[in-house]
Amino acid sequence: MIGIYLSGTGNTKYCVTKLVKLIDASADVVPLEDEFIIDKIKRNETVILGYPTQFSNAPYMVRDFIQMHASLWKGRKMICVATMGAFSGDGSGCAARLLKKYGAEILSGVHIKMPDSVCDSKLLKRQMEENKKIIEKADRKIYEAAKRIKQGDYLKEGLTIFSHIAGLFGQRLWFYKKTAGYTDQLKINEDCTGCGMCAEICPMKNIIMEKGKPHPGDQCTMCYRCICNCPKQAITLLGSKVIEQYKFENYINLTKM
Ligand SMILES: Cc1cc2nc3c(=O)[nH]c(=O)nc-3n(C[C@H](O)[C@H](O)[C@H](O)COP(=O)(O)O)c2cc1C
Ligand code: SF4
Ligand code: SF4
Questions:
Q1: Are residues 8 and 67 in the same domain?
Q2: Fewer CB near the terminus (10 Å): N or C of the chain?
Q3: From ligand 3's centre to the CA of 207, what distance in Å?
Q4: Which ranges carry the 4Fe-4S ferredoxin-type domain (predicted)?
Q5: 98 and 203 housed in the same domain
Q6: Any idea what DSSP says for residue 2?
Q7: First to last CA, the chain
Q8: pLDDT in tens, 215-241
Q9: Best mutation site among 54, 135, 251 for ligand 1, i.e. most ligand atoms within 8 A of its Cβ?
């Protein structure tokens, strides 16, 4: 077994790592941007794939990765894990359907509610205490999912026709344009000091440093990693001002991991 994931602000990394390690402590867990990921996947029959839900869809980088490596999935047993701030409908189903098209066997879909990562919108902002409770509940969910996977009694969250309809009409249809491809809408303001951190951490290598200034390209997958980590809060995407930078690491000392 191997765990692979896209995680902008750490939620999905945490969930997939914990789930995989509960099932098989010796299994690898790697991000999609790992340079040897294809070889690593090839060595494993069962793959747990995790990602953050974006407008009830899988991030474009995840769908692109699946499509670019279409031959990789034939016969592989997949468990799709979608993390989300509130609602996804068929978050796990979005990748599962693609993987199935390329010959994968879908064992399970798991939905895990986590704190919201969109730090330049007020919409789903919660107090620290509330987020802490959400993470504790997520922990219990991960234990349950691991137990069931080990027993071969798989959760099917996000995989049914009802969840497909909920995801489609709940959000995806109305916001489809937002996740139809990569975006060029990342904005960097004059507070930027040119430290280069955003360019270093972007999983898409979408930000290039030139003459000490960051230049965002048109390959942003909206993961919010650079936006939540910029020391000057100079980066925005969906909103126009950073309200509160979210990083899962900030919760590590607050919750019993
Ligand atoms: C661009 C964007 C769109 C999002 N859309 C949704 C959504 O439709 N529903 C939802 O419940 N959460 C949504 N979220 C919240 C994330 O799915 C959630 O916080 C996730 O756990 C973040 O995972 P990460 O820390 O691994 O990146 C969205 C986040 C981003 C960045
Ligand atoms: S991380 Fe922020 S301050 Fe540093 S280069 Fe990027 S935008 Fe500028
Ligand atoms: S530019 Fe920022 S938000 Fe976009 S993919 Fe890179 S790190 Fe994520």
A1: yes
A2: C
A3: 8
A4: 184-212, 218-240
A5: no
A6: E
A7: 22
A8: 999 999 999 999 999 999 999 999 999
A9: 54
